[in-house]
């Protein structure tokens, strides 16, 4: 049997495993399992690391069975994971000493607020902002709050890492304590310019260096399997990247100016900036991108908090339709002479506006406004926000990005929405042929790492997909976007103007 690659996609709500044919990257078998969410207090979110590991082991076994392939056919393993979530475990027993603290967890808000003045130098070094989201503050909390942990950490009997690191420890029978640069770049402990753990940052967060894994590029020799009941010994882990960076790679974005946007509950945009860590004038994050040649690669990252969530709200809150997919047909019935502008800042506005206290606002309601008009306005509101985010990222990078925007995620199933996105951007949007860019990216990295394929071959492949070309003339596009910006200014004035 020809070799296959096994991609592990350990996400926030579930673990998935996908078996790929490395010649075509057709998925041969897929398995998925939800993982338990623990909310011990308001704003706290934890995962049980043993559950995470169990779900990964089970889905790997099931995906191979679904593909009808033997574990002996696996030439390489790739891992992509929920980013920023931290695990601390005992090096002797491999047992976690605490539940994983998940990226969504806000328990370090007070620390971040008290240290706000240190934001600028932390941003300069890490490309991030001082926020509870990132791992360093969570690791600091763990070491501060359990009196036994710090001495053990300093003695070197504990190991810590993001989810990829914990999974690799388990996959390799404790032989490899490693991570990749994209995951390391989300910790606030990693200097993205020098691509290494930084003593000043480690001191600042009180994290002993011996606790942390070795950092490798995303396509590398991370270790080999040992002592598992679902894979033979000696299968190499060859590709690792955090979920958004894996999706960027899976979408074939390898060069400066190439970007992808994943439209799920929120929307995540990553713009590749090549060998340069571009710092943003719009408070976008600077982050490591997956590298297959060992040289550092970078991206700018921004998020729109409410994307598919706006459609969920129309469906569940206002009950305008029964399924998210119906939003497409309904929006198509909207009257173009009834322009409603909806600024869907339901949980505040993020980059490039940054008004956390903002809320959603609709402009232009009349007695003739219908559910169809509101639905179209919601889809347009998301497309306007993503267009602003892309403009900000492209402006930070300098120059004009003309490459098509690669898209994926649940909301990208909506053709009408993607045509609107192309219209507001004035450039084409391409929906990936393969819906799962994240797992695909991990599979592709593993295949490159194992020498089964290379970037030029993958680039040719990534051009496939459904393309949506802009149809709006430049003048009309500018008029629509000017109307949107006027609406955003009014919202900002209302909520942030005092
Ligand atoms: P997540 O990974 O964040 O859970 P998914 O990628 O599964 O998200 O996408 C689900 C989101 O996409 C939901 O918020 C849903 O409202 C939205 N969605 C799904 N299908 C459509 C559609 N056809 N049109 C618009 N929105 C959609």
In words, what does this structure look like?
This protein has 498 residues and is of the alpha+beta class. It is built from 16 helices and 23 strands. It has two domains: 4-245, Nucleotidyltransferase, domain 5, CATH 3.30.420.40; 252-431 and 465-498, Nucleotidyltransferase, domain 5 (2-Layer Sandwich). It has helices at 49-67, 109-114, 119-126, 135-145, 149-155, 163-171, 181-184, 199-205, 243-250, 308-317, 326-332, 371-397, 415-425, 437-449, 455-462, 474-496, and strands at 4-10, 14-20, 27-34, 46-47, 74-81, 86-90, 100-101, 158-162, 178-180, 190-191, 196-197, 214-216, 219-224, 236-242, 259-263, 267-274, 285-289, 297-304, 341-343, 361-363, 405-408, 429-432, 465-468. Helix 9 crosses helix 14 (437-449) and helix 12 packs across helix 13. It is globular and about 70 Å long. The chain has a seven-stranded mixed β-sheet. Strand 2 (14-20) and strand 3 (27-34) form a beta hairpin. Helices cover 36% and strands 22% of the residues. The model has no long low-confidence stretch (mean pLDDT 94). Adenosine-5'-diphosphate is lined by residues 264-265, 308-309, 311-312, 324-325, 327-328, 409-411, 413-414, 417.
Bound molecules: adenosine-5'-diphosphate
Task: Extract low-pLDDT stretches.
Answer: none
CATH class of the largest domain, named: Alpha Beta
The end-to-end distance, rounded to whole angstroms, is 68 Å
Beta-strand fraction estimate: 15-25%
Q: Tell me the count of domains.
A: 2
Largest sheet: 7 strands, mixed
Radius of gyration: 23 Å
């Amino acid at each position: 049997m020809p070799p296959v690659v096994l991609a592990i996609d350990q996400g926030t709500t579930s673990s998935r495993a996908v078996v790929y044919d490395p010649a075509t990257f057709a998925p041969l078998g897929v398995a998925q399992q939800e993982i338990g969410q623990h909310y011990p207090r308001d704003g706290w979110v934890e995962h049980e690391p043993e559950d995470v590991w169990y779900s990964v082991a089970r889905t790997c076994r099931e995906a191979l069975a679904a593909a009808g392939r033997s574990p002996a056919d696996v030439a390489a393993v790739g891992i992509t994971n929920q980013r920023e979530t931290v695990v601390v475990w005992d090096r002797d027993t491999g047992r976690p000493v605490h539940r994983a603290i998940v990226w969504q967890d806000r328990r370090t808000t007070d620390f971040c607020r008290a240290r706000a003045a240190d934001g600028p130098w932390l941003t300069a070094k890490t490309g991030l902002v001082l926020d509870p989201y990132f791992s360093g503050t969570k690791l600091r909390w763990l070491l501060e709050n359990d009196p036994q942990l710090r001495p053990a950490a300093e003695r070197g009997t504990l190991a810590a890492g993001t989810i990829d690191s914990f999974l690799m420890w388990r996959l390799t029978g404790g032989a490899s304590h490693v991570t990749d640069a994209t995951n390391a770049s989300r910790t606030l402990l990693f200097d993205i310019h020098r691509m290494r753990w930084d003593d000043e940052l480690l001191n600042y967060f009180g994290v002993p260096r011996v606790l942390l894994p070795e950092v490798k590029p995303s396509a590398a020799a991370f270790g080999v399997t040992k002592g598992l009941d679902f894979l033979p010994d000696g299968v190499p882990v060859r590709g690792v990247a955090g979920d958004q960076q894996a999706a960027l790679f899976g979408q074939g974005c390898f060069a400066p100016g190439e970007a992808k946007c994943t439209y799920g509950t929120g929307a995540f945009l990553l713009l590749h900036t090549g060998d340069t860590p571009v710092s943003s004038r719009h408070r976008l994050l600077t982050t490591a991108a997956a590298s297959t040649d060992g040289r550092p690669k970078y991206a700018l990252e921004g998020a729109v908090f409410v994307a598919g969530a706006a459609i969920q709200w129309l469906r569940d809150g206002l009950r305008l339709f029964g399924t998210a997919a119906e939003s497409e047909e309904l929006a198509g019935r909207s009257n173009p002479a009834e322009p409603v502008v909806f600024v869907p800042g339901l949980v505040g506005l993020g980059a490039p506006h940054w008004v956390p206290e903002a809320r959603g606002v609709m402009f232009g309601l009349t007695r003739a406004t219908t559910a169809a008009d509101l639905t179209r306005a919601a889809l347009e509101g998301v497309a306007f926000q993503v267009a602003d985010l892309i403009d900000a990222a492209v402006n930070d990078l300098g120059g004009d990005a003309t490459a098509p925007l690669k898209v994926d995620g649940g909301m990208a199933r909506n053709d009408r929405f993607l045509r609107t996105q192309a219209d507001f951007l004035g450039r084409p949007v391409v929906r990936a042929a393969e819906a799962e860019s994240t797992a695909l990216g991990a599979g592709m990295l593993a295949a490159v790492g194992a020498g089964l394929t290379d970037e030029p071959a993958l680039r040719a492949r990534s051009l496939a997909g459904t393309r949506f070309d802009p149809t709006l003339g430049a003048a009309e596009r500018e008029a629509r976007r000017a109307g949107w910006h006027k609406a955003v200014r009014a919202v900002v004035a209302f909520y942030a103007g005092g």
